Amino acid sequence: MTVPVLEIAGLTTIFRTSMGDVRAVDGVDLAVERGRTLCIVGESGCGKSILSLSVMGLVPTPGRIAQGEIFFEGRNIAGLSPADMRTIRGNQIAMIFQEPMTSLNPVHTVGFQIVEAIRAHQRVSSKAARALALESLKKVRIPSPERRLDEYPHQLSGGMRQRVMIAMALSCEPTLLIADEPTTALDVTIQAQILNLLRDLQAETGMAIVLITHDLGVVAEIADDVAVMYAGKVVERGSVGDIFDDPQHPYTLGLMGSMPRIDEETDRLVAIDGMVPPPFRLPQGCRFNPRCPFADDVCRSEQPQLTALDEGHLVACHKAPLELYA
Questions:
Q1: CA-angle at 24, arms to 34 and 227, nearest 5°
Q2: Does residue 243 sit within a domain?
Q3: 104: helix, coil or strand?
Q4: Has residue 55 got a pLDDT over 90?
Q5: Under a CB-based contact definition with an 8 Å cutoff, are residues 34 and 61 in contact?
Q6: What's residue 229's pLDDT?
Q7: Tens digit of pLDDT for each residue in 78-109?
Q8: In the sheet that 75-76 helps form, which strands lie side by side, from edge to edge?
Q9: Is 1 contained in some domain?
Q10: Domain range spanning residue 182?
Q11: Can you give the pLDDT at residue 134?
Q12: Could you tell me the CA-to-CA distances from 71 to 51, 79, 173 in Å, in that order?
């Protein structure tokens, strides 16, 4: 049996506030295997980014992992010391953040920053690290990579900067890449190029990818497996075919209905009423019930558990399967 590159079991991340402990991530179970892409999708405030920071050991104060396990290649890294986590982070697990201009240092050249990342994890000379940095830029298809090494972030376009971030993340050949909204600030043409690049690099290296997004177009383009998050919980999980062809949670249905499709004519897109509840004011029962058109008294009093509908397709909804209500 293949051991997943990343396996998350019962992960709960809390933040201590003046209103008590807030569960930003609440009992999440996920897994991704080598060479596969798991997309985590949901609106802002659903806990996607905090989940990724939990895996990286970068939960900001006053947050902490309260319970659960994070297995990376079979080793539980949830309780590692900061020093031990630093040997893994950036080396075996790399991360690309949403806006490259906030991640790249404006006063250092692109080459300096990639070299710094390489030398933080590999015992190589500056000359060797520079050669590796150049090779990384070539891998991400940056034109004139020799010249780009000595340029500053402000001299590059948004798409170029994102390629630099990918080059930096892949410079140590990680087993797992976590990408948090890597294409949000880019136009659709550059977005397609970045997604194609990630797919090509995955085919070349065999790395696993966890991609966090709110864009279902991105999910359809790159995902093998999908997890839909809402208010800190995974409410539906399955293959990309399961989620797109047979969505079973009302929230997933709402997300699908809000996405324009070129193969269908429609006068008006579906909108999900209301907003994601703040984590310090969660409703009783199913957390989606105030916004759900199918909700009844059971939904408002009992929290549903993830239940398998088919092999690999799980949903947390009292009303599943939804075909009964069509």
A1: 35
A2: yes
A3: coil
A4: yes
A5: no
A6: 97
A7: 989 999 999 999 899 999 987 767 789 999 99
A8: 20-32, 6-17, 63-72, 75-76
A9: no
A10: 6-92+175-325
A11: 95
A12: 14, 10, 19
Are the CB atoms for 136 and 168 separated by under 8 Å?
A: yes
Asked if 184 and 231 sit in the same domain, the reply is yes
Highest mean pLDDT among 22-26, 117-121, 181-185: 22-26
Cβ atoms of 255 and 270 closer than 8 Å: no
What percentage of the chain carries pLDDT values higher than 90? 70
Same domain as 160, residue 18? no
- Of 122, 150, 145, 124, whose CA–CA distance to 135 is shortest? 145
Per the listing, tokens 């539906």 go with: 236
Q: How confident is the model at residue 280 (pLDDT cuts 50, 70, 90)?
A: confident
For the question of whether the overall pTM of this predicted structure is more than 0.90, the answer is yes
Interior angle at CA 116, CA 115 and CA 117, nearest 5: 90
The two tokens of residue 200 are 């090509």
Residue at a domain's end among 142, 173, 204 = 173
Total domain count, the chain: 2
CB 20 within 8 A of CB 60: no
List the beta bridge partners of residue 180.
Answer: 212
In a domain, 218, yes or no: yes
Instruction: Output the six-digit token pair for 224.
Output: 């093998």
Residue 153: both structure tokens together: 């972030």
- Token pair listed for 102: 């906030």
Q: For residue 310, give both structure tokens.
A: 């088919």
Q: What is the 3-state secondary structure of 173-210?
A: CCCEEEEECCCCCCCHHHHHHHHHHHHHHHHHHCCEEE
Residue with tokens 């980014």: 49
In whole angstroms, what is the distance from residue 244 CA to residue 15 CA? 33
Q: CB of 289 within 8 A of CB of 283? A: yes
CA atoms within 13 A on the CB side of 249: 34
Cα atoms found within 13 Å of the Cα of residue 18, Cβ hemisphere only: 0
Residue 108 phi/psi, 5-degree rounding, is -120, 150
Task: Express each pLDDT in 5-19 by its tens digit.
Answer: 999 999 999 999 888
Q: Is residue 238 part of a domain?
A: yes
* pLDDT > 70 fraction of the chain, expressed in percent and rounded: 95
How is residue 297 written in tokens?
């008294």
